[in-house]
Amino acid sequence: MHPGKQWYLVSYDVREPRRLHKVAQHLKGYGSRMQFSVFRCRLTVRELERLDWELSRILEAEDDLLIVALCSCCLAIMRQRGRKQDWSDEASTYEVI
Questions:
Q1: Is residue 23 a part of any domain in this protein?
Q2: Contacts of 73 (CB under 8 A, 6+ apart)
Q3: Residue 91: inside a domain, yes or no?
Q4: Which of 1, 13, 29, 46 could be joined to 89 by an S-S link, Cβ 3.0–4.6 Å?
Q5: Could you give the CA distance from residue 67 to residue 91 in angstroms, rounded to a whole number?
Q6: 70 lies in a domain?
Q7: pLDDT value at 89 more than 70
Q8: Is residue 71 part of a domain?
């Protein structure tokens, strides 16, 4: 288990194609894409705050952003179809600084 890290689902709805692309590219540095506008990210509280701030610099008032923390109970009852994701607590091979 990697101390201090938690899983988050990050979902967005961006109205302008250029901003949409920027948000998706930015999130690739924090996690992996699950669906077109949904990423999963394993972050510390500080990384989450930084990501939220960075996205606020890209997004406009007309855009939507939803970040949902997933506890271990949430992960235990999660249902998936299609490409299976590993939601283990193992440390990633890199860390966002």
A1: yes
A2: none
A3: no
A4: 1
A5: 21
A6: yes
A7: no
A8: yes
* 42, burial (CB in 10 Å: exposed 0-12, middle 13-18, buried 19+): buried
For residues 23 and 18, what is the distance between their CA atoms, to the nearest angstrom?
9
pLDDT in tens, 16-72: 999 999 999 999 999 999 999 999 999 999 999 999 999 999 999 999 999 999 887
- Which CATH number does the domain housing residue 67 bear? 3.30.70.240
Q: How far apart are CA 85 and CA 60, in angstroms?
A: 31
- Structural domains of the chain, count: 1
Alpha-carbon distances, residue 97 vs 42, 43, 79 (angstroms): 13, 11, 32
Could you tell me the residue range of the domain that residue 59 belongs to?
6-77
